[in-house]
Design brief:
TIM Barrel; alpha/beta; 17 strands; Urease, subunit C, domain 1; 30% helix; 392 residues; 6-stranded mixed sheet
C-alpha cells in the first residue's frame, strides 16, 4: 500500500486545491484524503511537493504500428512481425512517459496491435483498446493496413470479423486522408447507406463506431448514419473550411463524440502533405485550435487524442499538446483536462474504472509539476506516473 501526497488533485472533473493524500492499495485507489490524514499501518508515503495529481491521460487516437518517422503510415508494410512488436512497445513506452496510461489504437496493420494486446494484457504498458485495421474503400485512406472493403454485405462481414477478433471499436474511413496519396480529404469514401450498415452491425454486436471524416460531406454522412464518434472533424470542402452551423447542431443533438486530434510538437513543421492541405484550405494550427474550441462551446462532445505516431511532428507521447492546443483555442484548463480523462473514459466505455481520481478506480495516475490551472503547459513536466498502482 502506498500514499501519494501532492499539493493539488484534478479528479477528472474538479480540482481539489488544499493538498491531498491518495492511498493506493493493489491496482486500485483506496481513498482520497486531505493532507495530514493518518495513514494505515505499513503504508509507504511518497511525497511530490509542488505537483498536481491527475488521472492517467487517455489518448483516444493513436497509431501504434507507426514509428513517428517520415511517411510512417506509408512504411507500415515494411516492418516484419518482430519489428512491429518493437515499434508497438516503443510507442507505448513513449505514451507512458508522457502520462498516458490508456490508448485507443485506430490504425492497426492487419491485427498486429490486437494480437499484441491479447498476449500482453498484464504488461507494464498502458491499457490498449483497438479497432483492428480500419475499414476503408479499395485503395482508400490507410488501405495498406488491410481493411479494404466495399458493398453493404462485405461491410457487415468486416464488422463481424472485428467482433470475432476482439476489437473494442470499429473504425471506418468516411473520407480520404492527408497521409495516403491518391485519396481526397475533401471527398467521401462511403455513403450513408454503407456507413449505416456498419453502424447497425456494430451496434448489434455491442461495438461502437467512429468515423475518420475530414470533409464536411463525410461528417454529414457519418452523423446521418448514426456513428458514435468522428475523428478529425475538419469540415473541409473544395473551397476551404466550412464549419456549417446546421452540422454543428446535428453533432450536438446526436451526442456524437468528436476527437479532433489536435497537438503537435512545439515548433515542428507540418509534413509536406499537411502543409499543402493547409495551404488549400487556408487553415492554420491556431485557427484549428479555435475552431475546435468553438465546437466545444457550442456543446459538441470533445475528447482528446493525438494521432500519435504518424510523423515526427506527431510522435507517440505528444498527447499533452492536444490538451494544450484545446486550451490555447479558448477552452478552460479544467474542461480541457476532462477531455483527456473522465470524458475520454466515458467515450470508450471505461467510465466505471478509469479517468477519475476516486476510490475504487484504477490507480492510473500522473503527477505533473505545478498547477495546470495556472498554465496547462504543466502537462509537459511529468514527475511521476503510476500504472495499476505501480510507479512506472
Amino acid at each position: 500500500m502506498i500514499a501519494i501526497e501532492v499539493d493539488a488533485v484534478f479528479d477528472g472533473e474538479h480540482f481539489l486545491s488544499d493538498g491531498a493524500v491518495v492511498i493506493v492499495e493493489g491496482r486500485q485507489i483506496r481513498s482520497v484524503n486531505p493532507r495530514g490524514t493518518e495513514l494505515p499501518a505499513g503504508c509507504e508515503l511518497l511525497q511530490f511537493p509542488g505537483t498536481t495529481l491527475l488521472p492517467g491521460l487517455i489518448d483516444m487516437h493513436v497509431h501504434l504500428c507507426c514509428d513517428s518517422g517520415p511517411d510512417a503510415l506509408d512504411r507500415i508494410p515494411e516492418f516484419s512481425d518482430a519489428e512491429l512488436v518493437t515499434v508497438i512497445e516503443d510507442a507505448l513506452a513513449a505514451h507512458l512517459r508522457s502520462g498516458v496510461t490508456t490508448v485507443r489504437d485506430l490504425g492497426d496493420r492487419e491485427w498486429a496491435v490486437i494480437d499484441w494486446r491479447d498476449r500482453n494484457r498484464a504488461s507494464a504498458f498502458p491499457t490498449v483498446l483497438g479497432s483492428g485495421p480500419p475499414i476503408t474503400s479499395p485503395r482508400g485512406h490507410c488501405w495498406n493496413m488491410g481493411g479494404e472493403t466495399r458493398g453493404v454485405e462485405q461491410l457487415r462481414r468486416a464488422v463481424a470479423e472485428r467482433a470475432e477478433r476482439g476489437a473494442d471499436i470499429v473504425k471506418i474511413m468516411a473520407s480520404g486522408g492527408v497521409n495516403t496519396p491518391g485519396t481526397d480529404p475533401a471527398g467521401v469514401q462511403f455513403g450513408v447507406t454503407e456507413i449505416r450498415a456498419v453502424v447497425d452491425e456494430s451496434h448489434a454486436r455491442g461495438l461502437g463506431v467512429t468515423a475518420h471524416a475530414h470533409s464536411l460531406a463525410a461528417i454529414k454522412n457519418a452523423v446521418a448514419a448514426g456513428v458514435d464518434g468522428i475523428e478529425h472533424c475538419t469540415f473541409i470542402t473544395s473551397d476551404g473550411i466550412d464549419v456549417a452551423g446546421s452540422v454543428v447542431a446535428d453533432l450536438v443533438a446526436s451526442g456524437t463524440t468528436v476527437c479532433p486530434t489536435l497537438g503537435i510538437v512545439p515548433g515542428a513543421t507540418p509534413a509536406p502533405r499537411t502543409l499543402e492541405m493547409m495551404r488549400k484550405t487556408g487553415m492554420s494550427v491556431s485557427q484549428r485550435n479555435h475552431t475546435v474550441a468553438g465546437l466545444h462551446s457550442a456543446g459538441v462532445r470533445i475528447v482528446s487524442g493525438s494521432d500519435g505516431g504518424i510523423r515526427a511532428g506527431k510522435p507517440h507521447g505528444v498527447m499533452p499538446e492536444a490538451v494544450i492546443g484545446l486550451v490555447d483555442g479558448g477552452v478552460s484548463p479544467t474542461e480541457g483536462l476532462a477531455t483527456a480523462t473522465s470524458l475520454a473514459a466515458a467515450a470508450c466505455g471505461l467510465a466505471d474504472r478509469k479517468g477519475r481520481v476516486l476510490a475504487g478506480y484504477d490507480a492510473d495516475l500522473v503527477a505533473v509539476q505545478g498547477d495546470p490551472r495556472a498554465g496547462v503547459t504543466a502537462l509537459r513536466d511529468v514527475r511521476a506516473v503510476f500504472l495499476h498502482g505501480i510507479r512506472a
